[in-house]
Design brief:
The complex is a heterodimer. Chain A is mostly helical. Chain A has 12 helices and no strands. Classes of the chains: A mainly alpha, B mainly alpha.
């Protein structure tokens, strides 16, 4: 009757060991990111722009502040591929110098906003007592009219910071801080939501039960797990910061005139709009292209970091 | 729902008071001197008297409460007077602009039509363009239309108005000479000719602003439609033999509109804030332009009042969006 149709039922349960070599999470993310063509193109374009802007000045013979009054208001030529401005300064060199400032402002302001946003988000999500006040604080910031306040802030503290740190350093600090403290709120909200969900998970309970301190719990267990939303808001944060800085410079409230940024160059170019309309093209294109590349990268990153989409 | 609305409205009062205090204190720090333009030959004691005439002689908290009284009591009374012809606010001190030497509210009322014409029109145009694009690109996901639509919205997201605005001026005003680059606010629409002129000067600012609105709203619309298109009720609707048009445009669209409408409501306050940059580019003298000139001229009562009014609108429309969400979606229960 029982003539053993299946001789070794246990054998089916035996582990043969994984066939594929182990893969790290970031490898998976990278593989998914690669399949998003727009994101990959965005990443490459962004890398090229950053390289051109930071290495370009070492290769290009003209200095951004070198004034050659005899060569002013020139169109594109071999010596000056982007032409020259009203003082005979080479536009390409100024574009590279401007890009350095714009991108550094974008990166630093994003870092500041990210640190602030993650800190507030993690604190609000992790400590129930802080949740109410911190979230009310976030809502308060969200209901402030930001661009007007940014303008007021820049106007208010410019003189004070200029005298302490010098005109260039001062305005850099001011703009980075102003953008940073007005753009951390979305990050804080997203991080708080994720931390709230994460806090109830078993591995946090396990870590707590072996006596992990709150600080270690946050830095070793919570933060690595909320990395993906933070990274996505980081990319969007850079784009936002670059646009805001350019907007401030465009309104004449950003960097001083002899200190080029892309927004400043655009502002200078609009004053010569009637005579040399082609001049507005390059700085505007640089801003738009950078932001477009970053946004595409953010899109791809969001997909790549989402485990529900990954591997499909 | 009513209790929820009332609770939110009551809670918004301390928020708004706090915001007004924050703005006031921030402006209090302003280094600029409203007397900076007065000639040096004016003796210091006269300058001191002028300063007091502007209400600067008193300590900060007194000025803050006076501003609050003027803003919350006198100005609404002025409005009532204006509508009903009463004389409630007769002889009361109003919020005065230092720059224009006239009540702030009067200046705001003067500037409002330009902003509403240009910015509100662009918002409407942007939404009208965005909704069909969002619907169709979700319905044909990954089609050529969807790909181009996504690319265009990405571009609209990334190109800042100070570039797109200048670019269209270069193309359509400088090169082609079709449209005027400066918005003429003195133009009175009386006949067909002036109406055409008004239309011509509105096209560029409206389109520049609409590009941004379109980019945002169509992305939302597309995502929301995609969420709903794969739901079971859609299959049911198809199974019982409804036409494709009814399925998509009635069943799916109505459900997808819920989050989109709240997003649209959240964007409304920024209409009244005026588009600072776009108004600057096209020389539209609306509220945004008023705000930036007031900031540059150190006209603190003006800056305070305008920013606070924007903050009020933001808080109010946040509540409107939340309440709308509850009204439209019966699954949401606030109580």
């Amino acid at each position: 009757m029982t003539d053993a149709p299946d001789p070794k039922p246990i054998a089916a349960l035996a582990d043969e060991g994984p066939t594929a070599p182990p893969r790290s999470q970031w490898r998976d993310v990278w593989d998914q990111f690669k399949t998003h063509r727009g994101a990959l193109a965005g990443g490459i374009v962004l890398l090229l722009i950053i390289l051109a802007v930071f290495i370009g000045p070492y290769l290009w013979p003209y200095d951004a502040t070198f004034i050659d009054i005899r060569a002013r208001n020139q169109g594109p030529s071999l010596a000056h591929p982007f032409g020259t401005d009203q003082l005979g300064r080479d536009t390409l060199a100024r574009m590279m110098a401007g890009g350095q400032t714009s991108i550094s402002v974008g990166l630093t302001a994003m870092l500041l906003a990210l640190v602030l946003g993650s800190l507030i988000g993690v604190l609000a999500g992790f400590f129930r007592r802080l949740d109410g006040p911190l979230m009310r604080f976030t809502d308060l910031f969200l209901s402030l009219p930001l661009l007007p306040l940014l303008l007021v802030m820049v106007l208010l503290f410019r003189e004070a910071l200029n005298s302490t740190f010098g005109p260039e350093q001062g305005i850099f600090i001011l703009i980075v801080v102003a953008i940073g403290v007005t753009s951390w709120m979305p990050t804080a909200r997203i991080v708080r939501g994720d931390v709230l969900a994460l806090k109830e998970r078993e591995f946090i309970l396990a870590a707590r039960s072996i006596g992990t301190t709150n600080f270690n719990l946050i830095t070793r267990h919570i933060l690595p797990n909320v990395m993906s939303p933070i990274m996505v808001s980081a990319t969007l944060g850079i784009a936002n910061a670059i646009i805001t800085e350019s907007a401030l410079s465009f309104l004449g409230l950003g960097f001083p005139p002899d200190f080029p940024t892309w927004g400043r160059l655009l502002n200078d170019a609009t004053q010569y709009l009637q005579d040399y309309p082609e001049r507005v093209f390059w700085p505007g294109l640089a801003i738009s292209l950078t932001v477009l590349a970053i946004n595409y990268m953010g899109d791809g990153l969001r997909d790549a970091l989402d485990p529900r989409i990954r591997g499909r | 729902m009513l209790t929820y609305t009332i609770r939110r409205l009551v809670l918004s009062i301390p928020t708004l008071l706090f915001i007004s205090l924050v703005i006031f204190l921030l402006l209090e720090l302003a280094p600029g001197d409203p007397m900076a333009q007065v000639p040096l030959t004016v003796p210091p004691e006269v300058k001191e008297r002028m300063r007091e005439a502007l209400g600067l002689g008193e300590p900060t908290h007194v000025r803050f409460f006076k501003w609050m009284y003027q803003f919350f009591v006198v100005e609404p009374m002025m409005l009532i007077d204006h509508i009903f012809g009463t004389a409630l606010a007769e002889g009361q001190q109003r919020v005065l602009s230092w720059q224009f030497r006239s009540p702030v509210m009067d200046v705001i009322v003067q500037r409002m039509p330009q902003t509403l014409w240009v910015v509100a029109m662009s918002y409407v145009v942007g939404i009208l363009i965005a909704l069909p694009i969002g619907i169709y690109s979700a319905y044909r996901q990954y089609s050529l239309f969807d790909q181009t639509g996504t690319f265009i919205t990405m571009v609209g997201y990334s190109v800042p108005p100070f570039f797109s605005g200048v670019l269209v001026i270069v193309i359509f005003s400088v090169q082609l000479g079709w449209l005027p680059s400066i918005y003429d606010t003195t133009l009175d629409v009386v006949g067909w000719e002036t109406f055409k002129q008004q239309l011509m000067q509105m096209v560029m600012p409206v389109m520049v602003l609409a590009l941004q609105t379109t980019a945002q709203i169509s992305r939302f619309m597309r995502a929301s439609m995609l969420d709903n298109l794969n739901q079971d009720y859609v299959r049911t609707a198809r199974a019982k033999g409804l036409s494709e048009w009814t399925v998509v445009m009635v069943h799916v669209l109505r459900n997808s509109m819920i989050p989109v409408i709240t997003v649209i409501a959240l964007g409304v306050p920024y209409i009244f804030g005026g588009a600072i940059i776009t108004e600057q580019i096209f020389k539209v003298n609306g509220l945004g332009q008023l705000l930036i000139t007031a900031i540059q001229a150190n006209d603190l009562p003006m800056v305070q009042t305008v920013t606070f009014m924007i903050a009020v609108l933001i808080v109010m429309f946040n509540i409107v969006a939340d309440v709308l969400y509850g009204v439209l979606d019966p699954r949401i229960r606030y109580d």
